[in-house]
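ok so i was messing around last nite and threw this chain in just to see what happens. nothing serious, just curious
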Amino acid sequence: MADVRFEAIRKTFGKVVAVDDVDLAVPDGEFTVLLGPSGCGKTTLLRCLAGLEKVDGGRVLIGSRDATDQPPRRRRIAMVFQSYAVFPHMRVYDNIGFGLKMQKTKKATVKERVHSAAELLHIEELLDRYPAQLSGGQRQRVAVARAIATPNDVLLMDEPLSNLDALLRMEMRAELKALLQQLGTTTIYVTHDQVEALSMGDRVAVMNAGRIVQADTPLAVYDRPADMFVGGFIGTPPMNFLEAEVSANGGAPHVRLGESSFPLDDGAGVRPGKVVLGIRAEAIAVEQERRDGTIQATVVVVEPLGSHNLLTVRIGEDLVKVSTRPDVFPEPASDLWLRFEPARIRWMDPDTRAAFGAPAPAGTEA
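result:
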């Protein structure tokens, strides 16, 4: 196993900048997820690490080796693709052992490693079948088994679960996370699915327009987004963003939202003037009557979701999502009052759209 470092990686396709001066360090044994919308550069960055794309600038280091100009076969990397890429004319046994045979590994060792990988993926009974006789989930397990059967320093996964149905994807997430924890292999996983990223990764690197805008633990990325893009991309529903104004008025500073206001929490680090208030739906409490420090809102719609209700309410010109208990069911067009949890508020600069006090995006070092 080995750590991985991207140093000022740049990759262009004609006039399109796919990866723009990316720095990222992945420690030995860590499971890092590259998360972002389609076209943000995450798969291109993965392919640069695998040697499938030649970088236009920067360096790729694997352990102590500078792998920037090494061919893929010398990088000691295994990769699992979105399309499974299993060989249809080979049995499952031969698919799993293909990399080992290409390395001219002894037959006894091939047999041992194939059966060991199949056992880890619970596909021992499928070794004599062909891919056409397997379900999508079984073919994905074969692809993962092939990747881990061959000794490698780093495991790369490019949206490996996206072709599975929702229930199977959920089952495979748990199985894959448990497997990688057991193996302890340095893993870089690409996805646009935030649930996969938050539930599986030790660390999440959020990408946008070819750059890493935040790299942190899943909880930090969710609760303390570095900017409005991260807060709006992660979360179901996304973080609420409201235009607000902080005023001192000769006394304690207050935050005005619509026609209501509440006192600014000490240590918020926000100066008087226009700001953007970011808050998650579950960090808003609902009151049935006006109290000190609450914000008046008008109910637009109520969505029952079983474990909770999701309210859409209006504050001034802003629509806000609020998560409540399933027994809270206000009538549309009725008024209610909201209380924001001070510690969960994220203050954003309306001009830069970045969080006040957030580290620079280059703070991607481990």
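not much to say yet. The chain has a mean pLDDT of 89.
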